[in-house]
Design brief:
The complex is a heterotrimer of chains A (290), B (391) and C (300).
Chain A: H1 2-30, H2 36-53, H3 59-87, H4 95-114, E1 129-132, E2 135-138, H5 139-161, H6 163-173, H7 175-180, H8 185-210, H9 221-231, H10 236-256, H11 262-276
Antiparallel strand pairs in A: 1-2
Helix pairs in contact in A: 1-5, 1-8, 1-9, 1-10, 2-3, 2-4, 2-8, 3-4, 3-8, 5-6, 5-8, 6-8, 9-10, 10-11
Chain B: H1 2-18, E1 30-36, H2 43-62, E2 71-77, H3 82-95, E3 100-102, H4 107-120, E4 124-126, E5 145-147, H5 152-165, E6 171-177, H6 181-196, E7 200-207, H7 215-221, E8 228-231, H8 235-247, E9 253-256, H9 263-269, H10 272-275, E10 279-282, H11 289-302, H12 310-328, H13 333-341, E11 346-347, E12 354-355, E13 357-358, E14 363-364, E15 369-374, E16 380-386
Parallel strand pairs in B: 1-2, 1-3, 3-4, 4-5, 6-7, 6-8, 8-9, 9-10
Antiparallel strand pairs in B: 10-15, 11-12, 13-14, 15-16
Chain C: H1 3-27, H2 35-53, H3 57-79, H4 84-104, H5 106-109, E1 115-116, H6 124-143, H7 145-155, H8 157-162, H9 167-193, E2 195-196, H10 203-216, H11 221-237, H12 245-259, H13 272-278
Antiparallel strand pairs in C: 1-2
Helix pairs in contact in C: 1-6, 1-9, 1-10, 1-11, 2-3, 2-4, 2-9, 3-9, 6-7, 6-9, 7-9, 10-11
Classes of the chains: A mainly alpha (290), B alpha/beta (391), C mainly alpha (300).
């Protein structure tokens, strides 16, 4: 049973990780807590579902459309709400309300469009599981893991092997200096949001298959927020470790302590962890600049 | 300029809030209100309930109305929040002059409205399953609150009895949402009844609200190998639990509450392949010919089939309210209250087709429920009609 | 009690709560996503004292305030030592924690079924009086030494400390003050509704408070008050739009944000000087100073 629980924890945790990487991309590079990420997750879920259900597209094509759609929506959100703030030289804290409102609006819109219904992929897509030495491994989890690893590899490639990746990394060290070096900050910010949106789209589509398609699915963003913070500033692997840690903690508190207070216990442990290690799991120590 | 517009806008808002309807005249329509969830995660249920009530109101209006007057039906959103529900109730009573209010199917909201209804003296009739809505303490009845379906305690007990007698279950596992009164009340009733009548509850697991991954809880249940797994849940959580239980290889017979009776539940399971074999409680027999004609009328009116059983709630609540107005012979809320209390053998769709109110509990007298099973072809097969009185 | 009175009570309870959020977020720059949990603490404390021990109205309200403040001191001590963004995280954790405690301790709080039987005492004048006192207190706090310390910690914590402001103590004071205000609002809510359930105080509700604060103007007390009143009334007015209600509500907010990203009122404050100058000017405040920059955003 211990190993089955371990497996369950990794399954949940890897899902949190996937959602958290996109969240932490924006947080690490721009220093912005972006709750509209949750809206992009929900958009991804619904776009891929609609493509499969109503347009009868094959699943990979639906996934691509959903991912692109979520990416564009993310870029659009940045264009409409964050860029005016940057143009006026305002603090990014004002983006907070915009991101929350976009999050609420998308949930309300999807509820309205779907009439509050719960939906699922036709013909029990990717359900069931296989047995490995007495452990039950759901098929969808394997598919999720493969897609997550592939998308993280793509992300790493873009960040470390392309010009825009170089620009983004430069901007993440020092936005102002990067601008002085001739980097177009508008493009960097838009590109960051685009990539975060693409990752949200992938995560959202997979969530819809793994659980169900419903309008409030974007609430998962709070778990992504936690994973990102626990992982720490510095690099994207932090978010992955953070997600896994939260998944495992949740699962084991449910299994061995109490299921009804598991979120409270999990989060208390995480806060204690942050008190002891303010830079997060794998974050670099940064001194406050004066 | 923008600020000026804003100010004018807010003045208009306040102004229209204060505007109230004048006293009702003889030929004016009779106002019947409904408080339900039209937005938020449970809006599907609310819109279905509203459509059901609207359909019934239109049928009655087409047949000449009640007391020679037409019915004006108004539905307001409560967003799932008790404070919003209380506001909606006050708006219906104060502004729209509703003489009877229908709703809600949320126990928490009805619990908040019940004391307000005692002050406002306008009866509220609905489907909150928590018995405390009508009876806040043993022997004490809220005069103006009424429930029109078996309470959650009766439904939990009926399911336990079904498991013991029809399925010959010896062991049961229960999974319940600690943040949801609908779920906890039924789960406790099931557990207590099951144990008191010779069964063993091998696992009783409470989880925190908002959970979507139940594998940690279900993995604890699996080695106990229960005969039945009882899931008193809303459709979304219930579906996910069934799906994940099957993924983990739990082969126990799954029993559920009345929210597992709809297509959204099957969707949340990921298809009928997963949902088949799940037993659930339901208030009406799907094979009943009266029900079939109701379905046909509904589809004709709204251009889409009935999705959830909440349409029945709306439809039957409207029938009961109108019958009470007719029996009272007046739109005086006090007289309607007395009439609701004394409703007897009213023909409705739910239960065994006859509704009698118990004036001592403000709940129906011995209203039965069906136990159904999801079949592999996506239909619902009636297994047994259960009466609360047999408990 | 009439419908209008009920609506206005709701509105002004929200005004009281957002004054607390304004103290925390607007003045001190701390984002609390668990403020509703303090409202819950105050409401449940007042409700339990009133139903179990038949305490009078004022005493119950006081119990609510005290409970909230005590909880805030306990929670604030570790969480205010965290970085600002981790502090928001801690408040979310606190929100989940309170919700869990309320759901689990069925014997005291009624669990998910909720706490029933609280007398309906709150009237509009109670709430108006409380709102007026809160607004006056917050205004004076803003002008006193601690308030200025708050603004300086928000703008630059290190610089403030160099000038002798104890940032931690300042934040602790503000956190407790805001919790006390939320507790008062919670007590009034308990005696208004007569019923409490844990799901009335979730994280989305806290987020809703923050939206109200930002909407009017994060750095403007006047803006926060008027923004809250406007949004609360708007929500009530949109009841008639049935299914479209939330969509319209969010869209209206988003339109305002796009055109006035720093809030409708920016940093403008209502003052006697403005009132005196009003006769000589067109309607509305003249030049609006844009919000104060902080170093949260690595942007030129």
């Amino acid at each position: 049973m211990f190993f089955q629980q371990l497996l369950n924890g990794i399954s949940v945790g890897s899902m949190y990780s996937l959602l958290a990487v996109g969240f932490s991309l924006v947080y690490n590079i721009l220093g912005i807590v972006n709750f509209s990420h949750g809206a992009m997750i929900a958009i991804g879920t619904y776009l891929s579902y609609w493509c499969v259900r109503y347009l009868r597209f094959p699943v990979p094509l639906a996934l691509v459309i959903a991912v692109i759609g979520a990416g564009l929506a993310s870029m659009g959100t940045e264009r409409a709400t964050l860029r005016p703030l940057r143009r006026r030289g305002q603090s990014s804290v004002f983006f907070f309300i915009a991101s929350l409102t976009v999050f609420n609006l998308v949930a309300a819109l999807l509820t309205y469009i779907s009439k509050g219904n719960i939906e699922s992929y036709p013909s029990a897509f990717l359900t069931g599981s296989f047995t490995f030495r007495g452990l039950m491994i759901p098929r969808i989890d394997v598919v999720m893991l493969v897609i997550a690893i592939l998308s993280l590899m793509c992300l790493t490639y873009v960040l470390f092997r392309t010009r825009i990746g170089l620009a983004i990394r430069a901007a993440s060290y020092n936005l102002k200096a990067a601008q002085l070096m001739g980097i177009n900050i508008d493009w960097v910010v838009a590109g960051t949001f685009l990539m975060a949106g693409l990752l949200a789209g992938i995560g959202g589509s997979l969530l819809g298959v793994k659980y169900a398609v419903y309008a409030d699915i974007g609430n998962m963003v709070f778990k992504a927020f936690f994973s990102c913070m626990v992982g720490g500033l510095g690099n994207l692997t932090g978010a992955i470790w953070g997600g896994l840690l939260i998944g495992l903690l949740e699962t084991f508190t449910c299994a061995y302590i109490s299921s009804s207070v598991s979120p409270a216990i999990t989060f208390t442990v995480l806060i204690v962890l942050l008190l002891l290690r303010p830079q997060g799991l794998s974050g670099r120590v940064t001194e406050e600049k004066i | 300029m923008k600020r000026l517009i804003g100010l004018v806008l807010s003045l208009v808002l306040v102004g229209s809030l204060m505007a109230s309807v004048g006293a009702a005249a003889k030929d004016e329509p009779i106002v019947i209100g409904l408080i339900t969830a039209l937005t938020g995660p449970t809006s599907l249920w609310g819109t279905q309930e509203r459509n059901g009530a609207l359909l019934r109101a239109e049928e009655i209006n087409a047949a000449g109305g009640v007391l020679g007057r037409q019915i004006k039906f108004i539905a307001y959103d409560h967003k799932g929040s008790p404070a919003e529900g209380v506001n909606a109730y006050r708006k219906l009573v104060d502004q729209d002059r509703a003489c009877v209010v229908l709703g809600t199917h949320f126990s928490n909201i009805s619990l908040a409205i019940a004391p307000i209804a005692e002050q406002k003296r306008v009866p509220i009739l609905g489907q909150p399953m928590e018995p405390k809505v009508t009876m806040p303490a043993p022997g004490k009845v809220n005069r103006y609150s009424f429930l029109a379906q078996p309470s959650c305690i009766e439904q939990g007990q009926m399911m336990a009895r079904f498991a013991l007698e029809e399925l010959n279950a010896k062991t049961a596992a229960v999974l319940t949402d600690k943040a949801n009164s609908y779920s906890t009340s039924q789960a406790e009733a099931f557990r207590d009844y099951f144990q008191a009548h010779g069964g063993t509850v091998v696992a009783y697991i409470e989880y925190a609200g908002g959970t979507v991954d139940f594998k940690a809880q279900l993995t604890q249940i699996k080695p106990k190998d229960p005969d039945v797994l009882y899931l008193p849940q809303y459709a979304q959580a219930g579906g996910m639990q069934v799906k994940q239980a099957r993924e983990l290889g739990i082969d126990a017979v799954i029993l559920g509450s009345n929210s597992l009776s709809d297509p959204p539940f099957v969707n949340a399971c990921g298809g009928i392949e997963v949902a088949k074999g799940v037993h659930f409680m339901f208030n009406v027999d799907f094979s009943d010919p009266r029900f079939a004609s109701f379905l046909k009328n509904y589809e004709k009116r709204f251009g889409e089939p009935v999705v959830t059983y909440h349409t029945l709630f709306g439809y039957d609540d409207m029938t009961l309210a109108v019958t009470a107005i007719k029996n009272a012979g007046s739109t005086d809320p006090e007289k309607i209250r007395d009439a609701i209390e004394n409703l007897k053998d009213v023909p409705i769709l739910m239960g065994d087709g006859k509704f009698t109110m118990n004036p001592k509990t403000h709940r129906p007298v011995n209203m039965p429920s069906w136990v159904f099973r999801w079949e592999p072809d996506g239909t619902r097969k009636p297994i047994k009609l259960m009466y609360p009185a047999e408990l | 009690m009439s419908f209008l009175e009920g609506v206005l009570i709701n509105v002004f309870i929200l005004v009281i709560i957002t004054q607390g959020v304004y103290l925390l977020t607007g003045m001190t720059g701390l984002f609390s996503l668990g403020q509703a949990a303090f409202v819950a603490t105050g409401a449940y404390a007042a409700g339990i004292v009133a139903t179990r021990y038949q305490a009078p109205f004022l005493l119950s309200l006081a119990a609510g305030v005290v409970a909230s403040v005590v909880v805030s001191l306990v929670v604030g001590y570790p969480s205010l030592k965290l970085r600002r963004v981790h502090f928001s995280l801690a408040t979310i954790a606190f929100g989940y924690g309170i919700e869990s405690i309320l759901n689990v301790s069925t014997g005291i709080t009624g669990g998910a079924i909720g706490l029933i039987g609280i007398p309906n005492i709150t009237r509009l004048w109670h709430v108006l009086l409380a709102a007026f006192l809160t607004i006056a207190l917050v205004r004076n706090f803003k002008l006193c030494r601690y308030g200025r310390a708050c603004v300086s910690t928000r703008t630059d914590e290190v610089a403030a400390q160099v000038y002798g402001v104890n940032a931690f103590v300042t934040k602790e004071i503000v956190f407790a003050f805001a919790a006390g205000i939320s507790g008062l609002a919670g007590g009034l809510l308990a005696f208004y509704l007569g019923y409490l359930s844990p799901d009335m105080f979730g994280i989305p509700i806290s987020a809703e408070y923050l939206i109200m604060v930002f909407f009017g103007g994060l750095y403007s007390q006047t803006g926060v008050i008027l923004g809250t009143i406007f949004l609360a009334l708007l929500m009530e007015m949109l009841r008639a739009t049935a299914e479209l209600r939330m969509v319209l509500y969010c869209t209206i907010i988003l339109i305002f944000i796009i055109f006035r990203p720093t809030g409708v009122f920016g940093t403008w404050e209502f003052s006697r000087a403005w009132l005196a100058g009003l006769s000589g000017r067109a309607f509305g405040p003249g030049v609006v100073k844009e919000g104060v920059k902080d170093n949260g955003f690595k942007q030129a």
